[in-house]
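Researcher: Go.
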Amino acid sequence: MLPEIEKLLVLQDRDQRIRTLKTELKNAPIERKDLETRLAATAAGAEKAKAALRELEVEKKRLEVEAQGKRDQINRFKTQQMQTRKNEEFQALANEIAHFEKEIGKIEDRELEVMEQIEAAKPVLAEAERKVVEARSLVASQIADLETKIATLTETLKTMEAERASLTEGIDEDLLDQYNRLFVSKGGNAVVALEHEVCTGCHMKLTTQTLVRVRGGQQITHCEQCGRILYWTV
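Model: Structure:
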């Protein structure tokens, strides 16, 4: 194998690792956002349960006020009954009292329904709030781990990028330029093996002339299909 190929393979391995580190660092904010989004969704569920319970309690209070208003009106009607001397007015007031008592009965029935719904809603809210506390603790821990990971990746990347410069020493500038362009355009695989007369980069069969040059190991040879730099593995 040509010494240049050996150097390029070492450089490519380092560049692939650098590429992976950069991808992980790029994805870190997305991971954090995902954690925060999941926490927000859990908190939103608790807020929804709290709002539902609040609405029921408001409804219960409204019904209580409405029922009391009708009871007060009944008392006024009874007072008027005691003051009237006319049978027609007395009977009319009695009818109003009966009507209001019937309305109060309906309100009280609805109050019972609402109270049952309140009792059912309380454990739902408690469970939702428990999940929020649990999620906050978990997400805080995961974010802390992510921050540690980011710091480690950043330091490792800095070290690798500093070491990369020494790995390019002794490589022809034109060849290095070709390699750099291929690494970017070919998804991190600029130098690939020739196996069973096929380029392992594009998986196309190579011509006999190209096969002979690669196996000869005397010159840099590119795949005529994809342009990658080829090397022969025995």
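Model: The radius of gyration is 40 Å.
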